[in-house]
Amino acid sequence: MSSHPLANLLARAVERNRVPDLHAVVALHHGQVVLEHYGEGADFKLGEPLGHVRFTPDTLHDIRSVTKSVVGLLYGIALADGRVPEPHEPLLRHFAEYQDLAEDPRLAALTVEHALTMTLGLEWDENVPYTSAANSEIAMELAPDRCRYVLSRRIMDEPGTRWSYCGGASALAARLIEKGTGLALEDYARTRLFEPLGITRWEWSTGTDGVALAASGLRLPPHGLLAIGRLVLEGGRDIVPASWLATVLRPHVRIDEGFHYGYQWYVGDTWIAGFGNGGQRIHVSPALDIVVAVTAGQYDRPDQPTASVVLDEVILPALTQ
C-alpha cells in the first residue's frame, strides 16, 4: 500500500471490514498516484473460479461492464477514422444481413445513438442473475447470432425516450466497429487505444463464436483501468477526439437512480464513471482532477458497496477537504 495519508484511511476501512472483497484501488490526483492498494481473495473470470488470488499491479481482472465504456471510446475513434456511421444514422441501414427485420417500421427507425445511449426500447432484462439463460445478455451470448437476437426483441418503449440497461446495445455498437474497420474488436482496441496508452497487459474474453464480448469481456490490470480514466480526464489527448468525448460525456438520458447516461458512460453532476458487476469502477472527477480505478469481487450480489465506500468514505472526503 502507498505511503500517502489516504493509505492509512483505507487501511482502517479494511480493518473495520467496510470494504469487503476489495481487490485493488489506484487513485490519481493532480497527475500523481496518491493511493495504491492490492488485496487478496477469491476471483473469477466471467464466472469461472480462479481460486484465491493475491493481487498485484500486473494482475488482470474482469472489468465487466466497464467494457461497455471502452467500446464507447472505440466507437469515437472509428468514427474519426470514417469507419462507422454517425450516431443519427439508422442502425439497420448498416446491417444488410438483417433487412428482413426492417419491415417493422419501429425497428427501421432505430438509430446508432439509440444503441449508444441504451434507449433502444427493446424487451430486455438483465435483472435476472447472470448465471441464468433467462438473463437477456446471457441469452444473447448463447444465440447463434448475437445481433439478430438483439434486433429481434419486441419494442416495448418508444426508442430514445427511456433508458433501459442493455448489453445488446453494446454488442451492436461493437459489431459496427468490426464491420467498418474489418478488424476484430480486440485488434482494433489494441492498435488504436491500448498501445497508444501504454497498456501492454490485457485480455478480451470471447464467446463460443470466438467474437469478443463487448458488454463485459475485457480484463485489465488496475493501472490499465486508471489509464482509461486518465484519458477521459485529459480530454482524449490525440487518441480519442475531444469532440467525441464531449458528446460521450453529455447527459443524454436520465436514469432512475438520479443521474444520467451518455454514450456508454454514466454521468453525474460532478463525475463520469464506468460501472461493472462486482464493484469494478472507473471514476473521473474533472473539477477535482481525480481519477480512481477500483476492482472488487462482489460479483452478482444485489448489494455491491465496496467501490462506493472507497470513493465516498475514503478518497473523495480526504481529497476535497
UniProtKB/TrEMBL annotation:
List the Pfam families.
Beta-lactamase
Where do the Beta-lactamase-related domain residues begin and end? Answer: 12-299
> Secretion signal: which residues?
none
- This one is known as Beta-lactamase-related domain-containing protein
* Naturally occurring in which organism (per UniProt): Planotetraspora phitsanulokensis
- Phylogenetic lineage: Bacteria, Bacillati, Actinomycetota, Actinomycetes, Streptosporangiales
